[in-house]
Design goal:
Elements (H helix, E strand, L loop, with lengths): L3 E5 L5 H11 L4 E8 L2 E9 L14 E5 L2 H14 L26 H5 L18 H9 L17 H14 L3 H13 L4 E2 L9 E2 L30 H4 L2 H5 L7 E3 L1 H12 L3 E2 L2 E2 L3 H6 L5 E5 L4 E5 L4 E3 L2 E5 L5 E5 L4 E7 L10 H17 L1
Parallel strand pairs: 4-6
Antiparallel strand pairs: 1-3, 2-3, 2-15, 4-7, 5-7, 8-9, 10-11, 12-13, 13-14, 14-15
């Protein structure tokens, strides 16, 4: 069995056992954390940080979590809503006047958070993702594919720019800077949107799925997807220095399982973790208000979207390209995060859910 490092409550032994099984099956490296009542009951890691399996995965190894970053961006918006600085029912143009163009005049802030704004496609070159002004200007001038609020289509790369520009207009700070100052900093969470060079040595680069190379592309194509909906984002792009340095708040976050679970424990614990209040209980509940339920036009599957989060029964969270997952269960006051450098094809990837189930087994013993 693969060596697993870290610590865990004996009631949650199924979690490190499940991580070891994934490594035994061939995964390169990964980490899992489970927080209950804002405290870690599992914080484990194992395997290697590099494809050559020469650099051990360490306690402070961080990795790109791709779309799990969306939950961090959503949290920033929820903080501003909580403070009365952002109205989810306001037109986006109240904060971003240039957005009111080519059919987006009635688009609301809540539409940005729930993938219903009609701007799911990134139709520019990957390189433009690295320039905030260029990226947001492109989206401001883009016509929606549907009337905002009438349908949903996963905004895989665009959502972070849309929400992030509203945050920037209100606060005068970039999304990554706001997150660092108002969320990660106070909590002591090692999660970054816009990664500084000083952290490069700790990064575990993404490893393509078996049989694929670094030209492996992210994308989903549902029944209503345009060619542009399947983005040209490749593994080599996600592994680039430019990607790390850029603030792409839908997808370019870097952290470890501990930091993801710590931050998202806010929603499991009424907005306060470790004595640090970031949200009100009402602000946390707002994330679970259903904004859309039905088929996602891009993903081609049924979804339930809250304010910035996917909803799964009473739980909420989201996954990232390649396998990362965050799962928050406010009823159990639990947050679980899984991060990995080993990508798998989405249709064949149940790792995150298997780890959620293992964590839930531990909860049964804890609550007994």
């Amino acid at each position: 069995m693969a060596d697993i490092h870290g610590s865990y409550d004996d009631l949650f032994a199924a979690v490190p056992t499940a991580l070891a099984a994934l490594l035994d099956e061939g995964d390169v490296g990964g980490a899992v954390a489970v927080f209950v009542d804002g405290e870690p009951v599992v914080d484990v890691w194992g395997g290697f940080a590099d494809a050559g399996r020469t650099v051990p995965w360490e306690r402070d190894t961080i990795v790109g979590v791709y779309s799990v970053t969306k939950t961090m961006t959503a949290l920033c918006a929820l903080v501003l809503i909580d403070r009365g600085e952002l109205d989810p029912d306001a037109p986006v143009a109240r904060y971003w006047p240039g957005f009111a163009a080519v059919g987006k005049e009635k688009a609301l802030v809540r539409h940005l958070l729930s993938h219903t704004a009609g701007l799911p496609d990134w139709d520019g070159p990957v390189e433009e993702l690295y320039d905030w002004t260029t990226a947001t200007a492109r989206l401001a001038g883009q016509a929606p594919r549907w009337e905002p609020g009438t349908a949903a289509g996963y905004h895989s790369l665009t959502q972070g720019f849309l929400v992030g520009e509203v945050v920037r207009r209100i606060t005068g700070r970039s999304l990554g800077d706001f997150f660092a100052a108002e969320v990660a900093g106070p909590l002591g969470a090692d999660f970054h949107i816009g990664l500084g060079a000083e952290h490069d040595r700790r990064v575990a680069l993404s490893v393509p799925p078996p049989g694929k190379d670094e030209d492996y592309v992210a994308g989903a194509a549902g029944r209503d997807a345009t060619p542009a909906a399947a983005t040209a984002l490749r593994v080599r792009d996600g592994n680039s220095i430019a990607w790390r340095r850029a603030q792409i708040p839908a997808a370019s976050g870097f952290g470890n399982a501990r930091s993801v679970a710590l931050v998202q424990s806010l929603l499991a614990c009424g907005g306060t973790v470790g004595g640090v209040r970031v949200l009100s209980p009402e602000g946390c509940e707002r994330a679970r208000e259903v904004q859309f339920e039905g088929e996602d036009r891009v993903l081609g599957m049924p979804v339930r979207y809250g304010l910035g989060y996917g909803l799964f029964g009473n739980a909420l969270g989201w996954g990232g390209w390649g396998g990362a997952l965050v799962w928050v269960d406010p009823d159990e006051r639990m947050a679980m995060a899984y991060v990995t450098n080993q990508m798998r094809e989405p249709a064949a990837d149940n790792r995150g859910i298997e780890l959620v189930m293992a964590a839930q087994d531990g909860l049964k013993g804890l609550r007994a």
